Amino acid sequence: MSIEQQYRTRAKELLASGEVKMVIGYGPGSTADRRRPLFITSPEECDRFVLDSACITNLSGYLVTEGLLSDGKRVAVFLRPEGVRALNVLAAEAQLDPDQIVIIGFDAPKGELKALQGSTVDDFTYLLAALKDVTPEIAGEQLLEKIEKMSPEERFAFWQQEFSKCIKCYACRQACPMCYCRRCIVDSNQPQWVNTSSHTLGNFEWNIVRAFHLSGRCVECGNCDRACPVNIPLRLINRKMAQEVLDSFNHFAGTSKTQEPVLASFKKDDSETFIL
């Protein structure tokens, strides 16, 4: 039996037994190489699920949909390792109860689909801890190396050119599981903190502020990259910020459900003088 069929059967069992009220997984997309989210509530529909190396979207963001978990019932979700990391971050930030989530874990390194054993975030602790010392391969790795070798002036010019393409559609925000605020700061106009116009200042403010908000929280799933209609390499910014946080604070986002957010916590013995 294929992994896909095993997971379809698992989804059917979870729904038929009443252990979960919904399974969030993947179905065929608009083209042969794309997959879209499916929200299945009956065992009979589970054969619609697709599972292959094209299932790359991080589905964890759907778990914080308003009202989904408010009834206390459990939900199952197909997650790759970065999705499990995102689930841990959401739990650590008190956005959901991880005990309400049943994980159907999988991965596809180098395109080879494999099942991951476990059904709770605690079951994946061993796997996530190991990821800290592994640099995941991402599209644009060579470009990132090129950017690192640039002078500050060259780097500024590079990002200025990239951000000039931004149309302020906020697709990156909508796709990101860490952007769960009911009302984003950029939607506030009394007072207006971030310029909403699609011009140099507004684009810089939006993209840089968002990168800082994700520092120590981004799990590098690439949802933002894939959602951007003008192909700004947003994942490269987040990769850089994640490395800075790792180097400075030894913090790797999403390793446990109790991990404190690195930029929203402090230690009394911190060497910085502003801690009194």
Detailed description of the structure:
By secondary structure, the chain is of the alpha/beta class. The protein folds into 2 domains: 3-131, no CATH class; 141-261, no CATH class. Helices cover 34% and strands 10% of the residues. The chain is built from 9 helices and 5 strands. The chain has a 5-stranded mixed sheet. A hairpin with a 6-residue loop joins strand 4 (101-107) and strand 5 (114-115). It is globular. The model has no long low-confidence stretch (mean pLDDT 88).
Please render the helix and strand layout as text.
Elements: H1 3-16, E1 22-28, E2 35-40, E3 75-79, H2 81-92, E4 101-107, E5 114-115, H3 125-131, H4 141-148, H5 152-163, H6 171-175, H7 200-213, H8 223-227, H9 234-249
Parallel strand pairs: 1-3, 3-4
Antiparallel strand pairs: 1-2, 4-5
